[in-house]
Amino acid sequence: xxxxxxxxxxxxxxxxxxxxxxxxxxxxxxxxxxxxxxxxxxxxxxxxxxxxxxxxxxxxxxxxxxxxxxxxxxxxxxxxxxxxxxxxxxxxxxxxxxxxxxxxxxxxxxxxxxxxxxxxxxxxxxxxxxxxxxxxxxxxxxxxxxxxxxxxxxxxxxxxxxxxxxxxxxxxxxxxxxxxxxxxxxxxxxxxxxxxxxxxxxxxxxxxxxxxxxxxxxxxxxxxxxxxxxxxxxxxxxxxxxxxxxxxxxxxxxxxxxxxxxxxxxxxxxxxxxxxxxxxxxxxxxxxxxxxxxxxxxxxxxxxxxxxxxxxxxxxxxxxxxxxxxxxxxxxxxxxxxxxxxxxxxxxxxxxxxxxxxxxxxxxxxxxxxxxxxxxxxxxxxxxxxxxxxxxxxxxxxxxxxxxxxxxxxxxxxxxxxxxxxxxxxxxxxxxxxxxxxxxxxxxxxxxxxxxxxxxxx
Length: 458
Description:
- The chain has helices spanning 7-24, 27-39, 75-78, 98-102, 120-129, 146-153, 206-229, 234-250, 252-257, 265-271, 275-289, 319-343, 418-428, and strands at residues 51-56, 83-85, 92-94, 107-113, 164-166, 186-187, 293-297, 350-355, 359-360, 367-368, 375-376, 381-382, 386-392, 399-401, 436-438, 444-446.
- By secondary structure, it is an alpha/beta fold.
- The protein has one domain (46-198, 273-457): 3-Layer(aba) Sandwich (Alkaline Phosphatase, subunit A).
- The strands form 5 sheets. An 8-stranded mixed β-sheet has the order 6-5-7-1-8-13-4-14, sandwiched between helices. It has a two-stranded antiparallel sheet with strand order 2-3.
- The model is unreliable at 10-28 and 231-241 (pLDDT under 50).
């Protein structure tokens, strides 16, 4: 026999109905996300108004064809491209990066970072977490990588935007591990170069906002009744996170940050009217609006004959034909971002990092291409040497840090670990890299097990 519902049960049922409606509008899930993050937020001190943009080159770009050419090496090492001078004496880079060359005084190239993991997942996990992966072939890191760590450590920063935004849920080999999925990014997967580019749950018309406001009013009235019953005050925190989520979803600041139409045609052309250029521009808009950490992956350049990512083995493509199509797009996007950061006075506030998980083998390895069916040049995975570009952050620019051996095989002078770069970045964001989180077994795990900020960047 069914018993009639008590007044409290009826009230809870009514609220569940309202919540279901709210969920269809996208608000409740974001509130849950915010609540989960805050429940495990790290203690914090005063946090600087700083941000980081990570331009991630999945697959591993060749240092020998970008920032560390070896024109005097034997032909089987040096390859087809020639170096050109930049506006910084002694810093030569690839001939297919002429726009980089004009703004080299606004970035630094680090040539001596290396690690020991030569597969994509393990290399990315090692580079981005600062720890040796337990399962190097696992595409999801066993340790939290930098985006989720920043998300957790700066969760208290409230600028009307998510603190961590990316164009994919995680990079290949990255992840949040024991920080939980609440530390993963707010994902903006659409191509910002499209005329109809929109971000779900950010761009709302006035009628939808009115419906949200009406629904929130109803929820608030029922919450007031529930608070009369609540004995421990826990319901008040639920209201706070629902309100914060609604404010984020409907705020002018969030909507404006994602509105690419606010940029002039000249600016958009400067970055390049392609996916990579507009992702770089969107990243600048997001950090300028207050987002703490933005990851933009530059994959699939959209050029016929180019591979999807930077993993140019000979079986995947002709290394030099691929780069002749890929590098001009990359050159325009990155150089425009660097120049824009400085021209807009953001160079003290924003740090830009451009990197992949490792470099490529110093010796060219010709093989028969899977598609071309002919012998063609390529380079394989190589963590013994790689080049990383850094810009802004109030740091010393216009320099080359470290060097590699004559054939580009190994770091030689000023050998650095990825952790040294991560320690530099965490310091810039006001994050203590000695801070420990508890892993799944309850063991305290410092953010970095080793590493020190790079003194040449200070």
